[in-house]
Structures are given as structure tokens and as C-alpha cells.
Design brief:
single chain, 237 residues, mainly alpha, two-stranded antiparallel ribbon, 4 strands, elongated, Ribosomal_uL10-like_sf, transmembrane helix
């Protein structure tokens, strides 16, 4: 009988544990139940649009193929970037501008103990330099930077003088620098001519005054001669 009682006691203890475990579960436990109908409608409506989810992990062969494909795309993009940048640099060179991309530390060291040291506050992030040959290059720099979306001009240096972009744009809104130079030359020539005329004015006035006095003296002499002749004829009579 002992041999039969032990299993019965074990079963009874297992049933007791099951009953107690079920009873010890919190009442806040959410039992599985069907999802709301609104949620099911939404998933049914979006199901054709949503991509099919893949539950299996990709194989090693697929991972290698994807890696090779992405690497080829990166190489192709880098090549296109190199070609585009070279072509843009060549176009800028044809228009009289030279593109240089030096490091910020190199430029800070170059500007050290010079009037351009105040530009160090602008040397943050990725910067580039555009060099020109004359004043006309300022107009070219503004026009080309407005065309390119990846270059934003910050400041202009001409003859060790720092110009803001507002000043440069105001200069570019006016006539060309050659026209401004010719206008300035003409203005200076006009000023010199007016100055020379003003300097010659006293001499001219003196000559005009002498000529006027000579004319008036001749007229006065003629009048006096007429008076003298008329008086002389009257005394004879």
C-alpha cells in the first residue's frame, strides 16, 4: 500500500500547487483576447501598403552580396563627387578664380600676427578659399557663389582690408569696376580742369578789366574831343 500511496500523494500535491499558483496570479493580469475591430480594420487597410516583414535572418551569402552592392554604390558616389568637384574647380579657374581648401589650423597659423587674424572666428567647420587677380574678381565670386548651393561667402579680403559681404554686394550692384574707374578718372580730370580755370580766372579777369578800361578811356577821350571842338567853334563865331 505504501507503494500506491506515494503517487497519489504526489498527484495531490501537484494539484494543490497548481491551484495555489493560479490563485496567486494578480487580478490585473491581462488575458489574451481578440484585438479591437478598429485595429483589425486599420491593419487590413494598410496591409497591402506595408512591406512584408521578414522573420528569418538573411544568410551569409545574402549579407556578402548586400555588402558588395553597397560598397560599389559608395565607390560610384565618391567617383561622381570627385568628377563634379574637379569640373567645378576647372570652371572657376576658367573664370579667373582659384579654389583652395586648406585646413583651419593652417589658415590660423598663416593669419597669426597679421591684420587678417580677426578672421579666425570664421574658421570653424569646413571652409574654402577663392582667390582672384583683380577687383573684377569680386563680382565673379559673388555671382558664382550664388549659383553654387554648397558655398556661402563669409568675408572678402582685398589689399589687406576685410570687407563684409554686404559691402561687396553693394559694390557689385553698381557698374563694373572698369566703368567706375573710368568715371573716377573723368571726375578727377574735370576737377583738375575746374581748378586750373579757377587759377587762371584772376588773370582772365585782369585782362578783361584792362580791355574794358581801355574801351571806356577811348570813349571818354572821344567825348572830350567832341566837347572841346564844339566849344572852340562857338568861340570863333
Amino acid at each position: 500500500m505504501l507503494s500506491h500511496l506515494v503517487p497519489t500523494q504526489i498527484c495531490s500535491t501537484q494539484n494543490f500547487l497548481l491551484k495555489t499558483s493560479v490563485r496567486l496570479v494578480s487580478r490585473k493580469y491581462i488575458r489574451p483576447h481578440p484585438r479591437p475591430y478598429k485595429r483589425r480594420w486599420f491593419e487590413a487597410a494598410v496591409a497591402p501598403v506595408m512591406p512584408a516583414s521578414r522573420r528569418l535572418c538573411p544568410s551569409v551569402v545574402e549579407m556578402k552580396q548586400q555588402f558588395e552592392r553597397e560598397r560599389n554604390e559608395v565607390i560610384f558616389i565618391s567617383y561622381l563627387y570627385f568628377v563634379i568637384m574637379i569640373s567645378i574647380h576647372q570652371l572657376l579657374r576658367l573664370k579667373g578664380l582659384e579654389f583652395r581648401n586648406y585646413g583651419n589650423r593652417i589658415m590660423q597659423k598663416a593669419f597669426e600676427a597679421t591684420p587678417l587674424e580677426t578672421l579666425n572666428v570664421l574658421l570653424i567647420g569646413s571652409n574654402c578659399m577663392l582667390f582672384g587677380k583683380n577687383m573684377q574678381s569680386l563680382r565673379t565670386i559673388v555671382q558664382e557663389c550664388d549659383k553654387l548651393a554648397w558655398i556661402e561667402p563669409l568675408a572678402v579680403v582685398y589689399d589687406s582690408k576685410i570687407l563684409s559681404m554686404q559691402e561687396v554686394r553693394e559694390l557689385c550692384m553698381k557698374k563694373t569696376f572698369e566703368e567706375n574707374r573710368s568715371e573716377a578718372v573723368n571726375t578727377f580730370d574735370g576737377i583738375l580742369m575746374e581748378t586750373s580755370q579757377l587759377l587762371d580766372l584772376p588773370k582772365t579777369l585782369t585782362q578783361q578789366t584792362l580791355a574794358t578800361l581801355d574801351g571806356q578811356f577811348g570813349e571818354l577821350t572821344g567825348i572830350l574831343e567832341k566837347i572841346y571842338s564844339s566849344e572852340h567853334t562857338s568861340t570863333k563865331k
